[in-house]
C-alpha cells in the first residue's frame, strides 16, 4: 500500500513532463511555421528582383551591356574625318543591322518585359510624320511593292514579339541616322539635298529590317526625298543579287557547325550551363522547353532581358539565373565566334556568300565616281550580313560589330585633280565609326591621311574581286567555286 502510494506521484510526474515537452515542441513548430509563412512569399520576390541587379556593371558585364547598343549610347566616330580639300567625298555605302528585336525563341514571362523606349523629340516627330504620311497616302510604297502591308512601326509600343523590331530598335536607328547626318553635313553638303534618283535602298523582306531602314533614312536624308524612294527587296540575307545559287556553301556550313558542336562537347560544364539556363528561359504557352540548349540560342534569349533591364525568370523558387550564368554564356559564345573566324571552312563559306554583295559594292563605287550615281546606297540586313562580309574582306573578329543597329560604312573619295579613271579613286572602311581600312586583307596601297584616317585604292578591291577573290579556293570564278 505504501509502495503503490509512492508510485502514483512518480507516474503523474512523468506524464506531466511528457505533456510539457510535447507542448513546448508544438509551440516551437508553431513559431517556425508562423515565421516561415511570413517569409516565404518574399523569398521568390527577392530572388527575382536581385537576379538582374546581380548583373552589376564591371569589366565582364560591361561588354554584355555594350552589345545592346542602347539608343542614348549610340555615337558617331571617325565618319567624314577627312577635311582636306585634296579629297572629295563622292558617296556612301552603308550596311546596317536592324535594331533591337524580340527573341527568336519563345521565352518565359515575355509579356512582363517592357520593350518600349523613352519618347524623345525625334521619335515623336517620326511618329507624327508616319501618321500624316499614311493618312495622306504620300509614301510611295503604300499599297504596292514587296513590302505591301508592312506596318511602319512595331504593332505594340511596349511589348516584345518574336523576331519583331521593338520601339527601342526604332529609336536606335533614328538616332543613328540623325547623328550620321550631322557628322556628314560638315564635309558632304550633298546629304541635305539628295534626290530620290541618287539614293538606292535594299532591305531583306523582314519587318524588322524594313522598319529599321525606314527610321534610319528619316534621320539621315530629307523627308521630301524619303517620300519618293522605292525600296528594293533582297532575296537573301547575304544580298547576293545575281550570284546566289551556290550548293557548296551548305557543305561548308555543315563543317562549321560540326566544329562548333565538337567545341561544345569538349566543354561539358558549358553544355550543362546552357541546359540549366535554357530550362529557366524557354517555354511555349507557359510550358518549359528543353530542346533549345544551344549556347547561342540561350545568349539571344538572355539579351531580351538584359537589353530591357528586366529581371530574369526563375525555374522554381530558388533555381534562378545568376550573374555567373550570363557571364559564362557570353564569354563562351564570344570565344566560339573568335575560333570560327579562324576556321578555314568559315572563311570559304563567307567568301562565297558575300561574293554578290562585294561585286555590287564595287559597281556602286565606280558609278559614284563616274558622276552617274547613286551617291547613297543603304543595305538593311542582319548580323549574318555584316559577319559574312567582314570575314570575306579579311577583317579582324569584333564582337561589337554584330550588336543591334551596328553599321559598316564605305566612304568613296576622289582626288581633287579632275582624274576620270580609277587611279585617283579611294575608299575608307569604317566599322561602328572606327576606321578599319588597314585591316582589309587586299589593301596594298594604303594612304595614311592622319592618325585615324586611312584610304585604300579602289583598284585594290577591283583587282581582288577579279583576280584574287577565289585564289584560296584554287579556282578562278564563282561558278567553279560553287561546283567543287
Keywords summarizing the entry:
single chain, 484 residues, alpha/beta, nine-stranded mixed beta sheet, 11 strands, 47% helix
Question: TL;DR of this structure?
Answer:
With 484 residues, the chain is of the alpha/beta class.
What does this structure look like?
With 484 residues, this protein is α/β, with parallel strands linked by helices. The protein is built from 15 helices and eleven strands. Strands 1, 2, 3, 6, 7, 8, 9, 10 and 11 form a nine-stranded mixed β-sheet that branches. A two-stranded antiparallel ribbon has the order 4-5. β8 and β9 form a beta hairpin. The longest helix has 38 residues. The chain is globular and about 70 Å long. The N and C termini lie far apart (114 Å).
Topology (elements, then pairings):
Layout (H helix, E strand, L loop, with lengths): L1 H38 L2 H12 L7 H8 L18 E11 L23 H16 L30 H19 L13 E6 L2 H14 L2 H4 L4 E4 L13 H18 L2 H14 L1 E2 L2 E2 L6 H12 L16 H19 L2 H26 L6 E6 L1 H10 L14 E9 L9 E7 L2 E2 L10 E5 L2 E5 H11 L9 H6 L1
Parallel strand pairs: 1-6, 2-3, 2-6
Antiparallel strand pairs: 1-7, 4-5, 7-8, 8-9, 8-11, 10-11
Helix pairs in contact: 5-6, 8-12, 9-10, 9-11, 10-11, 12-13, 12-14
β-strand percent reads: 5-15%
- Percentage of residues in helical conformation: 40-55%
Biggest sheet record: 9 strands, mixed
Strand element count? 11
Please tally the helical runs, counting DSSP H or I stretches of 4 or more residues: 15
What is the overall pLDDT average?
A: 86
Order of helices and strands: HHHEHHEHHEHHEEHHHEHEEEEEHH
Radius of gyration, in angstroms, nearest whole number: 30 Å
Class based on secondary structure composition and strand pairing: alpha/beta
**Low-confidence segments, ≥5 residues, pLDDT <50?**
1-8, 21-54
* Shape annotation: globular
CA-to-CA gap between the ends? 114 Å
